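Re: the request from the purification team.
They wanted to know what the chain is likely to look like in 3D before they choose a buffer screen. I agreed to run a prediction and write the result into the notebook, where they can find it.
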Amino acid sequence: MAQQGQVFPLAGQGQDGTRWAYRYRVGGRGSRRVQRGGFASEQAAAEALERVLEQLRREQGLVESPTLAEFVEVYLAQHEGEPETTEKLRWLLGKAVRAFGEKRLSELRSPAIAAWRMTIPSGHRFEATQALRQVLARAVSWGLLDVNPAKLGVENRQRRYTEKRPFESWEELHALADRLGPCHGPVVLFAAATGLRPGEWLALEHRDVDREAQVVYVRRTYRNGRIKTPKTKASLRAVPLQAIALAALEELRRPDPDCPLLFPSPNGGYFDLHNFRNRNWRPAQEAVGISPLRRVYDLRHTFATYALRAGISTFDLSRYMGTSLAMIDRHYGHLARDGREHAISLLDAYRASGAADVHAVDARWTANRHDAVSTDNRNSH
């Protein structure tokens, strides 16, 4: 059994330069003694000693770690996400708990986790594995595990993105808007012209729109019957209003002075997206012959597709859509079918114009490394 160990000052260093060390025996009196030194304070040495002894106790089976089911409950009790986020995390972790819930953390093994992962349907495999990794990472940070068995040798490739189906043209969108009528048609055109998420345009208020500056400010989102602050700073953003978006706003019914919402329901409350999908959205698409049927979220994909085809950079698009560059590239970049042709046309136009208005960069100075160093700099070295 490991002893408690001992912390002591190293001799011969003086009062100002005192360094500390710890030592302990691996298996009791007469066993090999381990010593480590060079710590700046007694507390630092004591903390390091405790970490080493804790690991040794686990290796010797002297400390009983909690079961996965027990630790998941501890983790979820401290999770500070939105209630629905926590519930989704609980649901995902339930898949691992059903398989390994009775096992103690120290008994979890990577090969078993890798095999379990392949039993999860592909639609949730990545998320379920990530959830288990997330919980076990906390166990590592708390010193209950040395390594994360859900990461060590366990691949977790992201699932393939689902094919996005933007609308074919603005003519198609206008036909759909006409079919939906003056109550819902402008909403569809505005969503396709701004790329806002449904929860974002549902939460818009009149004060969020600056018609003179041609911009709409995204400050909140509506989800599960509640107004929320967006998850990330990137989601708090200003989105330019193209002419189609401004025209759609002009087509809206005269606003109720007592209702702040930009797109209210007929009774003045928040727009009921669920009823809209079933009662209006699907029948209108069928009536104008749109096939395959699009989702409301595909209005956002439509904006991304048209923006890329228009030559808007992925950097600017990520800002307008409130998402990362990686997500733009993964989900939308492949939709810009003419992106390569657009780049070629820009390069050809630059060459043909003689670049009169552009400062030319002379790349010849990089051909020889010594040419890039001035005489003064060379002499100074």
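For the purification team: The first strand starts at residue 6 and ends at 9.
Please add any questions underneath this entry.
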